Amino acid sequence: MEYKKIIILTISILIFSFALLLEGFLIYLTIRKTKLSYFNEHLKKWSQTIKSSNYNNSATIDRFRTLSTTMTNYLDLKNRLNNMYSKMCDLTKEINPLLQNLHETITKYNLNEAKTLHKKASNIFKDYNNLNQQFSGLSDSLNKHWNTIEVVAVNAYEVIKTLEQIINESKDKLPISYNSLINELKELRKKTSYLEAQRSSKAIQDVSKDLNEHDRKVRIFAEKVSHLVNMEWLSFNYLPECLNQIKQLDQSNANYTKLNGDLVKIQDDFIKETYQTTISKIRAWLYHYSVLTSQLKTKQELSNFIGNNISLIDQNLNKIELIANNFVLITDEYKQNEKTQIIANFVNLKQDFAKIKTALTNGDANVSYLDIDAFINSMIDWINKFNYLIKQYNDAEESKRYQQYYLNILRIWYLYVISNKDLLEMNSTNEKAITQLINLNESFTLKSTIDENQLTIFTDRLLELCKLVYYAQTYKFMALDLINSISIYRLNNEDIDSLIKISLEKIQNKQYKDAFQLIKDLIRREKLDVH
Questions:
Q1: Which helix (H) or strand (E) holds 176?
Q2: DSSP symbol at 65
Q3: Is the four-CA dihedral 274, 179, 264, 172 of positive or negative sign?
């Protein structure tokens, strides 16, 4: 039994040891892979940097060599860059075998040798990179301007080539400006070549600046070409057609003369002016043309309308005159001055229309748009004033009808008060109110119009007296009704009989509320049965 336990324990220890060894081996493989990947990334980065830097630096040396032949101020810088570049080439020769060997050791997963090679290559690359940074610091300004010149020049050539194609394709549409455009294009191409060549003999930053300015001019020319087909068609085809339409409408118009002069100016200056100025002039011309066309067409349409509707306007004027005369008759003395003035104005309108009618009938060319427009405006103004006068009259008549209706209602209540005034206690206040009410009513019957303040006083007094009469009627009726209801109890009860007599005396003295209150208290106190 002990023997079996020892065997099992031994096997377990062996398995555990094997597992530890396997885990350690796997960890080692992972670390090795990570390290080799790290080395491989550096290998690729260094190789690419060295390759691209050497290529760019070689091009830079060539540029400085070219410049130094014509500009001695570049000679010292060229020599310094040459020395740096030579050292960088030496370092390149030194590092290339190491990088090649590093690649092979990485491929073979030889970590120890890869570490050694990576360390050596890293030291050499640091020296190379330091030199490259110094080289770039000395040459970046030149390279920046040089590259800018190359890019701008290439773009300018491309744009010029494309523009030349567009201009030639549009030759038939540019009979006026084709030759000028071609000459301008040649000058732009020549200037591009001239500026590009100057980088070898002039300060590079100045050449870069001049070429950028030239590029702006090329793009402005491109914008001009994109507009010119339409501009030429507008200036030499469409605008003359528009001017001819104005001529047919009214050649004598002063604005026609101005438009004609402006068009001649646009055509004469078409080649000389900047395209932006020409566009602005065309837009201004079209705006004035639109305004003038609208005015002339409106004038013509209105003139045609008046001419075609002379008889209709004449009939309407006669109808309006009849309506105005009838209004004067039926309104009697209402606003006599205003009516006289409005009729006089209408007579003047008829006279003005008669002149226009005669002129149009005779074909008189002196009848202007302003004459017709003035007549129409005067007619509209007269109609508005006449309608307003009618509205005022209708409002006044409506107010009279309402006031009469209101007075009729007040008279009903007035008769109610007067016919029942004997119910009221004739004290000084009531007598004064009734007297004032009667006097106001008599004044209303004598006047055609009623003063608003007097009507308000009359209404207030009438309302006060109506309330008093109504209260007197109500309390008198209730008091007598209660007395009739309890009269059966007075035969055998002297107190009840005495109180009823007192109540009747109060009624006689027009103290109706007191009489009612006395009987009501009696009924409650004696607990009388009232039916």
A1: none
A2: H
A3: negative
**Cα(124)–Cα(42) distance, rounded to whole angstroms?**
13
Above 80 in pLDDT, residue 280? yes
CA dist., res. 103 & res. 84, Å (int): 28
* Cβ–Cβ under 8 Å, residues 486 and 519: yes
Token reading at 308: 């075609």
- Measured distance CA(469)–CA(419) in Å, rounded: 10
- Mean pLDDT across 497-524: 86
Among left, alpha and beta (phi > 0; psi -120 to 50; other), residue 154 is alpha
Q: State the pLDDT at residue 18.
A: 56
| Inter-residue contact 369 to 302 (CB < 8 Å) | yes
pTM: 0.41
Contact partners, residue 349, CB within 8 Å, separation at least 6: 317, 375, 378, 379, 382
Region of 463 (left: φ > 0; alpha: ψ -120 to 50; beta: rest) is alpha
**Exposure string (b/e) for 400-429, b if CB count within 10 Å is 16 or more?**
eeeeeeebeebeeebebbeebbebbeeeee
Q: Residue 5 — pLDDT band, cuts 50, 70, 90?
A: low
Cβ 259 vs Cβ 288: under 8 Å: yes
Residue among 166, 219, 153 nearest 192 (CA): 153
Whether pLDDT at 196 is above 70 = no
pLDDT the model gives residue 37: 78
Which residue carries 């080799």 as its tokens? Answer: 36
Residue 75's pLDDT is 60
Degrees (nearest 5) of the Cα angle 224, 227, 231?
110
Could you tell me if 478 and 514 are in contact, meaning their C-beta atoms sit under 8 angstroms apart?
Answer: no
Tens of pLDDT, residue by residue over 489-507, are 878 788 888 888 888 888 8
* 235 — pLDDT class (breaks 50, 70, 90): confident
Q: Which tokens in the block code for residue 292?
A: 């003038």
Those residues whose C-beta lies under 8 Å from the C-beta of residue 489, and which sit 6 or more positions away, are 496, 526, 528
Q: What is the pLDDT of residue 102?
A: 73
Of 151, 252, 149, the C-alpha closest to 194 is 149
Percentage of the chain surpassing pLDDT 90? 0
Give the N- to C-terminal CA distance of the chain in Å, as an integer: 132
Alpha-carbon gap, residue 502 to 430, rounded angstroms: 24
Q: How long is the chain?
A: 531
- Helix (H/G/I), strand (E/B), else coil: 333: coil
Query: Is residue 207 packed enough to be buried (19+ CB in 10 Å), middle (13-18) or exposed (0-12)?
Result: buried
Percentage helix, strand, coil, to 5, in the chain? 90, 0, 10
Average pLDDT, the chain: 76
